[in-house]
Amino acid sequence: MIGTLLGFVDDRALLARFRLLLAASAVVRAATVLTLFPLLRELLSDDPAGAWPWIALLALLVPVSWVVDVRYARASFAIGFTLLRVVEQRVLQRFERLAIPDVSPSVASATQRALTASGQELCGAFAYVIAPLLASLVATLLIGLGLAVVSAWLGLAALASLVALGLAMMASGALLRQAEASYDAASIEVGERIVEFAQAQRVLRASGRPVDADAPLGRALAAQRRASLRLLRLALPGTLLFALAGQAALAGLTVVAVALSRDGTLSGAEVVALVVVAVRFLEPFFTAAGLSATLEVTRGSLQRIGRLLATPPLPEPVSDVVPDPVPGAPTLELRGVDFAYPGGPPVLRGVDLVAERGRTVAVVGPSGSGKSTLLAVAARLADPSAGTVLHDGIPARELPLGALSARIGAVLQDVYLLDLPLLENIRLARPDAGDDEVRAAGSAAQLDDVVARLPDGWRTRVGEAGALLSGGERQRVSIARALLKRAPLLLLDEATSAVDALTERALVAALQAGAAERATIVVAHRLGTIADADEILFVDGGAVVERGTHAELLAAGGRFAAYWRRREAAAGWTLTGEAVTAG
C-alpha cells in the first residue's frame, strides 16, 4: 500500500527527502530506545556514576530526534498534499477520457467519492497515520537488530515476535477488508440512489411518493447501516487477536531475558532494562493495532481509485502533433460504422455518412433507432466496434482528444449549465473569447430577452445545472456556445425541441448564417429543419434504410415518405374537450 501511495508522487526530490528523513528518524528513535539499556543497567548497578555518559548521549538524542521528526513531519504533509493534488488530477483526467458507455452510475459514483473524499482520506491518513507509523516500525526493526547484538537469543525472540505480530495484523486486516468491501459496495449504492433521488424530485413530489424503507434509497441506506455494523463487529476479533499476540511477544521476550540471567549472561539490572526496551520495542505494533481500521479504510480508498484509473480510456495517439487534413476530404465521414453498448444488442449497423463543409445532413427515424448514438460516435464520445470515423480524412483515433474536441460544436438535448454567470457559461465554448464576442453569440441565440429579465443581466449566476433558466432558455445557451465556438463541424440533437416556433425560426436562421463555413449534422423531428437539409438519412434499427434529398425521398414513397406524412398529420392535431382531432 505504501509503495502504491508513493507511486502517485511526481516530485522525485520530495520523495528522496522523505526517504532520507524516514531513515534518519528511524535511526534516531532506535538509538534513543537502545540507549535506555546501558543507562538503566548502570543506574541499577552498584556504581550509578557510570550512567552519566549514557545520560549525556540521551540528552543529545532527544533534541536531534525532535529536529529530525519535525522535518520528517513536514515532508510527510508535503507528500500528503501532493497525493491529494495528483489523485484529483488523475481521476479527472481519466474520467474526461472515458468512453460514454463506460460512464456507468457506479463509475460516476466512484469518481464523485474519489474527488470529494478519497483524496482527502489519503492525504490525512498518510500525513497523520502512515508516515509516523512507518518511521516507528522501521525503528522497531533496528531495535530488534540491537537486541541481537546483546544476545542472539534475544534477536531470535525479537524476530519471532515480529513474525507473530505481523501474522496477527494480516489476519485482522483480512477480516476488516472483507467487511470494508461490503461497506464500500453499500456506500456506492447509496451514492447512486441519492443522485437518482435528487434528479427525480419533480416526479416524486408530483406523484406524492414518500421516501420509505421500501423505496430504493431507503433499502440502500438500510444496507449501508447493516454493512457499518458488520464492519464494527469484525474489527473486534482482529483487535483481540492482535492484543493476545502482543502480550505473548512481551512475555516471550521477558522469559528469554530471565533465562539469560539465570545462566549468568545477563545481570538482574540488565533484565529490568531489557523489559523496558521490550515494551518500547512492541509499542509501534500496539499503535498499529489501534489504527488498523483507519489503515483498512485508506486501503479501500486506494483500491477504489486504482479500479477507476484501471478503466481504459479512449486511446489517443502518442504524439500531440495534429496531422494535416487530407486535401479534398469531407469534414466528417463514417464508413461502415457498427456500435453496441457493453453487453447490449447492436445500436448502429454499417452506417455510412458524409458531411461536407457548407452542407447539412439530417438524420431522422423513430425513437430508439440510434440517431443520438450516431452523433456520439461522430464526436468520439465512444469508439465504434467496427468501421471508421474520419475528420478531414484523418481517422478519429489519430487525433488527440483535445484537438478533436476543438473541431466539434454540439447542441444536445440535455444541456448542463454550471453555477456561473450566464456570460461565463457561454464562454466555456471558447475561453479566450472577449465579452463582446460572447454577448454577440448570446444575442444571435435569442438570449437578449432572457438577459433583460435577469437581475444582473449577463453577470447573473444561473444556479446549479441552470436552475434559474427554463429548458428552452438552457437550449439557447447551448446554441450560443456552438455559435461562439465556430467549429468546422456542428452536431445538433433536437437543438430547438424546447422552444416555441417563433424562437425556433430565429435560432435556425442564426445557425444557418454560418452554415457555409461548417458541416452540419442535425437530428430533428421538426419538419422545416428536415426539409431544408441537403441530404436526409432515414435510420431504423441502427441502419440507414434510405438516403437522399427531401424531394427524392418523398418521390420514392418509402419509409421516409410515410414518416413525413405522419408528421404532417400530427402537426395539424388539436386538443378539444372530447378528443384529439385533425385540423
TrEMBL record:
Keyword flag Membrane: yes
Superkingdom assignment: Bacteria
Source organism: Patulibacter brassicae
Gene Ontology terms, MF aspect: ATP binding
InterPro entries: AAA+_ATPase, ABC1_TM_dom, ABC1_TM_sf, ABC_transporter-like_ATP-bd, ABC_transporter-like_CS, P-loop_NTPase, Type_1_exporter
The protein's name in its UniProt record: ABC transporter ATP-binding protein/permease
Matches recorded under Pfam families: ABC_tran (PF00005)
Positions of the ABC transmembrane type-1 domain: 20-296
Subcellular location, record wording: Cell membrane
Ranges of residues in domain ABC transporter: 332-566
Keywords: ATP-binding, Membrane, Nucleotide-binding, Transmembrane, Transmembrane helix
Transmembrane segments: 20-39, 51-68, 122-147, 153-176, 234-260
UniProt membrane topology term: Multi-pass membrane protein
Lineage: Bacteria, Bacillati, Actinomycetota, Thermoleophilia, Solirubrobacterales
PANTHER family noted in UniProt: ATP-BINDING CASSETTE SUB-FAMILY B, ATP-BINDING CASSETTE SUB-FAMILY B MEMBER 6
